[in-house]
Amino acid sequence: MPVQLSDRGYVGVYLGDLNAERARDLGLQEIRGAVVGRVEEGSPAANAGLQENDVILNFNAERVQNRAHFYRLLISSQPGSAVSLGIIRGGAEQKLAMVLGQRRLSVPDPCQRLFSEANAYLASATESHKLADEAQQKGDEKEARRFIDEEKMFRQMAEESRAYIEGEIRDGRVAECQPSRRPVNANRYQIGVSLAPLTPQLADFFNVAQDGALITEVRAGELGEQTGLKAGDCIVTVDGKTVRSSSDIDRLLNQESSGELEFVIVRDRSQRTVKIKLDQK
Fold first, then answer.
1. Is 104 exposed, middle or buried (0-12, 13-18, 19+ CB in 10 A)?
2. Which end of the chain is more exposed for a tag (fewer CB within 10 A), N or C?
3. Which H or E run contains 214?
């Protein structure tokens, strides 16, 4: 089975951010750090002894502010690097030693896992964008610029990862996964976006309570961009019908003879409506 080897350090853990209530429940004195969710079996995180509900407070000598900050520190470290993690577990501080691994992306289920790394980076970019907006609202321009830089970095990483996988698909080295890779491009209409299936983890992150599809690319100058769709939006319904993949939207576009379609999307964890007037090709 084909694999992708990343040149960035790999930990093998799902991370989340903290709110005041969760920080209090986990015995923290301040609201910072990255809280550990599921730990992948056999990963560097598992080998180092990380457990669910641990909170990572330090990466070597650097204080970890949140999940995005941890990823920023991680990607500057090479596979094979030895790092020290300062954590808190059950209210007690500990130190763990970890040797970073090298990510290997296998594709047993291409429609769900082929773009998993790219989607994770995109989710981090969306979170950094939200934090930048919050910092700007508070008047903290320095912090806002830091999060904007993080967002750019994560979006670049997502694009690099996606471009690699799409190259593998074009060259025939992996099984093609149409719903994940192809643009929404119906026989008569084209809105110019690419989609990825919304996994349960991504649905929880984006606060989507039902099925949907994640926009991973909006091509410049096409209808999706003109009507305000953005990468990181989650399409929930189109004209009241549930959307799970590109093929669902293709079918709805082909059924529409004229007029407009109403897209219900989730952006920044809140639902909104975008109406798209269709152009005849």
1. exposed
2. N
3. strand 213-218
Q: Which helix (H) or strand (E) covers residue 155, if one does?
A: helix 141-170
- In one letter, which amino acid is 59? F
The correct answer on CATH 3.50.50.60 for the domain covering 8-103 is: no
Model pLDDT for residues 100-153, shown as the tens digit of each residue: 887 654 434 444 456 666 777 777 777 778 888 888 888 988 888 888 887 887
Q: Dihedral sign, CA of 56, 62, 66, 70?
A: negative
Q: What percent of the chain has pLDDT over 90?
A: 13
The C-alpha atoms of residue 108 and residue 92 are separated, in whole angstroms, by: 40
What's the burial of 172, exposed, middle or buried (CB within 10 Å: 0-12/13-18/19+)? exposed
182-277 is classed CATH 1.10.760.10: no
List 78's β-bridge partners, or say none.
none
Look at residue 96 and give its three-state secondary structure: strand
| Largest Cα–Cα separation, the chain | 63
Number of residues assigned to the chain: 281
How far is CA 61 from its chain centroid?
27
- Which band of pLDDT confidence, cut at 50, 70 and 90, is reported for residue 180? very low
The HSE-up count of residue 100 (CA atoms within 13 Å, CB side) is: 23
User: Do the strands 55-59 and 101-104 form a parallel or antiparallel pair, or are they unpaired?
Assistant: unpaired
Residues 6+ apart with CB under 8 A from 18: 26, 28, 31, 32, 33, 35, 55, 66
Reading the block at residue 162, the tokens are 């996606």
**Nearest 5°: CA angle at 81, between 80 and 83?**
135
- Answer whether 8-103 and 182-277 agree in fold: yes
